TrEMBL record:
Name used for this protein in its record: Amidophosphoribosyltransferase
Function, as annotated: Catalyzes the formation of phosphoribosylamine from phosphoribosylpyrophosphate (PRPP) and glutamine.
Keyword Acetylation: no
CDD domains given in the database record: GPATase_N, PRTases_typeI
SUPFAM superfamilies associated with the record: N-terminal nucleophile aminohydrolases (Ntn hydrolases), PRTase-like
Reactions catalysed: 5-phospho-beta-D-ribosylamine + L-glutamate + diphosphate = 5-phospho-alpha-D-ribose 1-diphosphate + L-glutamine + H2O
Transmembrane feature ranges: none
Length: 466
């Protein structure tokens, strides 16, 4: 999901809408905005679909006045799978004795089922099926006197991944979980401040990128005192999601002081060194494979070519929630550029192989178009484990790499060769020159390694074997 908040500007909701539009790649199912105005109080709007189709009309934006607003774009990782209900669309709102508060959450709470059971037993009435709603109920039960402290109380009970943007009548609040699994950045816009999942959303509103919120940090931003920072959790070694670098973040964002584009190009170079191929052209599977394909081409000297053309009017395939839509999605979204492909030995670069559905279809399309050979090069190691921290990978049985060896995958996909970047190679490409520290990995890489930095308690309870 994507989260964004801004304070200290006129018509804050408009800034949020723009920010969410720039974060649309992080979630396309639905979006919501809550705004506060000193005279009109809190107002909210939640809609299915794209930000640009909902939060542009004056009809809606006029109902969201005020200098303080937050928003969320949703892609469902928990809650009602497949079909999002409007009641699951964030931000969530709670009315407390000291005033109202709204929160928007990116990540996934790994002990949400246990918390929900406990809260329901003690009288909480849940409105949604979302894991994030636990935070509001935990806040309601806290005995602290102000909202930021209630939030701290609540978040200390929560396990898993959370980047949160929240607001009260006067405060904009940002928090990252102690491992810092999901991103969150701080920006300056005019005399105001903003918080965003990624820096690309700062650019769109002309905000200046100040810094990343640290793992375990909470910032409370007010008009008079500016940004106050503290660290309410027990410190832990950070575990930023390495897959943000590979796929999830936008290439024009800055992560860990480095452009995501440059990192992906470096991944492609590393891949070319590790797994060269005898071929005539290097083609990306657009858009997610493009920077890595450029890196592969630069390193290998094999010319880059746009052998697959993407229809720009389709969203991300993966984020389409049902298998059936995803299946159709491939053809709706990608087409082979026949003139380029015919008679060629093609290196195809993609960011990841998850179920193998996309990869298989693309390979068929390329061979139909008359390619002589197809060599798949993948910018991440085999995805053999599900993510429980906010990226919607399927159950283990549906992951190609969980059920097949690399040789079996070559046969299954019927390609001439298939190579994944090594885990160490990926670490080198994201800037860890010594590779992966086995004793204490510098990132979360659980979907590749099976080493989960937080025990996924709910899943373990349901029988998941780590
Ligand atoms: Fe990211 Fe994979 Fe870890 Fe999920 S399991 S947080 S996708 S690295
Ligand atoms: Mg892709």
């Amino acid at each position: 999901c994507g989260i964004f908040g801004v304070t200290g500007v006129q018509d804050a909701a408009t800034f949020v809408a723009l920010g969410l539009h720039a974060l649309q790649h992080r979630g396309q199912e639905a979006g919501g905005i809550v705004a506060h105005d000193p005279e009109q109080g809190f107002n909210s709007a939640r809609r299915f679909g794209y930000v640009r189709d909902n939060f542009t009309s004056a009809d809606i934006m006029e109902t969201l006045p005020g200098p303080l607003a937050i928003g969320h774009v949703r892609y469902s990782t928990t809650g009602s799978k497949g079909q999002t209900a409007i009641r699951d669309v964030q931000p969530f709102f709670g009315e407390f004795s000291m005033g109202g508060a709204a929160i928007a959450h990116n990540g996934n709470i790994t002990n949400a089922n246990a918390l929900r059971r406990e809260l329901i037993e003690r009288g909480s009435i849940f409105q949604s099926s979302s894991d994030s709603e636990c935070i509001i109920h935990l806040m309601a039960r806290s005995l602290q006197r102000n909202i930021p402290e209630r939030m701290e109380d609540a978040l200390r009970r929560v396990e898993g991944a959370f980047s949160v943007v929240a607001m009260t009548r006067t405060k904009l609040i940002g928090v990252r979980d102690p491992l810092g699994v999901r991103p969150l950045v701080l920006g300056r816009v005019g005399d105001g401040w903003c918080l965003s999942s990624e820096t690309c959303a700062l650019d769109i509103i002309g905000a200046e990128f100040i810094r990343e919120i640290e793992p375990g940090e909470m910032v409370v931003i007010t008009a008079d005192k500016g940004v106050e920072s503290h660290f309410p959790f027990r410190p832990q070694p950070s575990k930023f999601c390495i897959f943000e670098h590979v796929y999830f973040s936008r290439p024009d964002s800055i992560l860990g002081g480095r452009s995501v584009y440059e990192t992906r190009e470096a991944i492609g170079r590393e891949l070319a060194k590790e797994s060269p191929a005898e071929a005539d052209i290097v083609c990306p599977v657009p858009d997610s494979g493009t920077p890595a394909a450029i890196g592969y081409s630069l390193e290998s000297g094999i010319p880059y070519a746009m052998g697959i053309i993407r229809n720009q009017y389709m969203g991300r395939t993966f984020i389409e929630p049902t298998e059936q839509i995803r299946n159709m999605g491939v053809r709706l979204k990608l087409n082979v550029n026949r003139a380029l492909i015919r008679g060629k030995r093609v290196v195809l670069v993609d960011d990841s192989v998850v179920r193998g559905t996309t990869s298989r279809k693309i390979k068929e399309m390329i061979l139909d178009a008359g390619a002589k050979e197809v060599h798949f090069r993948i910018a991440s190691p085999p995805t053999a484990w599900p993510c429980f921290y906010g990226v919607d990978t399927p159950e283990r049985e549906k992951l190609l790499a969980a059920t097949m060896s690399e040789d079996e995958m070559v046969k299954h996909l019927a390609v001439d060769s298939l190579k994944f970047i090594s885990l160490d190679g990926l670490y080198r490409a994201v800037g860890e020159s010594q590779g992966r520290n086995k004793a204490c990995p510098q990132y979360c890489d659980a979907c590749f390694s099976g080493e989960y930095p937080v025990v996924p308690a709910d899943k373990v309870e349901q029988g998941f074997k780590m």
